[in-house]
Amino acid sequence: MAKVGIIMGSDSDLSVMSKAAEILDLLKVEYELTIVSAHRTPDRLFEYAKNAEGRGINVIIAGAGGAAHLPGMVAAITVLPVVGVPVMTKALGGVDSLYSICQMPPGIPVATVAINGALNAGLLAAKMIAVGDEALRERLKDYAKGLEDMVIKKAEKLESQKYSKYLEEM
Predict the structure, then answer these.
(1) 129 vs 147: CA distance, rounded Å
(2) pLDDT for res 62
(3) What global pTM score does this model have?
(4) What is the 3 state secondary structure string of the chain?
């Protein structure tokens, strides 16, 4: 059963939102992935948010660009935690999306990650679920250790050669 719902306003957001799915796949967290437009399918939005908890969803990741009402509207309908992903736009570079998602009124919180930060949204959702899932906490610890190991290897490589050679090999 899916524990995370990943939704986006348009299929044009999929290249960004797929990063949340990729990290959840790596961490072995079940999710569902679909398109729910706040403006084009308001009834679908309402039904999705209203019924998510009953389907076993624990966290919703909602990505949207431009006016980016999707995360906030979902948060207004459900008591589940919502993580908003501002999607980069051509007109304003995603700052419009970021402001729309993070400037929620009191009482309707949306956790907001960086512009196009769906990977971190997936990690944040996994960490929320891991509060009650020891095996998932261990997988998150292993993931963090892998990041640490990667940085240490890069540091050792850089320290053992000239920076110009390192740059050539990047």
Answers:
(1) 21
(2) 98
(3) 0.95
(4) CCCEEEEECCHHHHHHHHHHHHHHHHCCCCEEEEECCCCCCHHHHHHHHHHCHHHCCCEEEEEEECCCCHHHHHHHHCCCCEEEEEECCCCCCCHHHHHHHHCCCCCCCCEECCCCCHHHHHHHHHHHHHCCCHHHHHHHHHHHHHHHHHHHHHHHHHHCCCHHHHHHHC
Residue 147 corresponds to which tokens in the numbers above? 């990041």
Would you state the structure tokens that stand for residue 136, as one six-digit string? 């998932």
Residue 28 to residue 126: CA distance in whole angstroms: 9
Q: Which long-range contacts (CB under 8 A, 24 or more apart) does 150-154 make?
A: none
Q: Residues 62-75: pLDDT tens digits? A: 999 999 999 999 99
CB 36 within 8 A of CB 70: yes
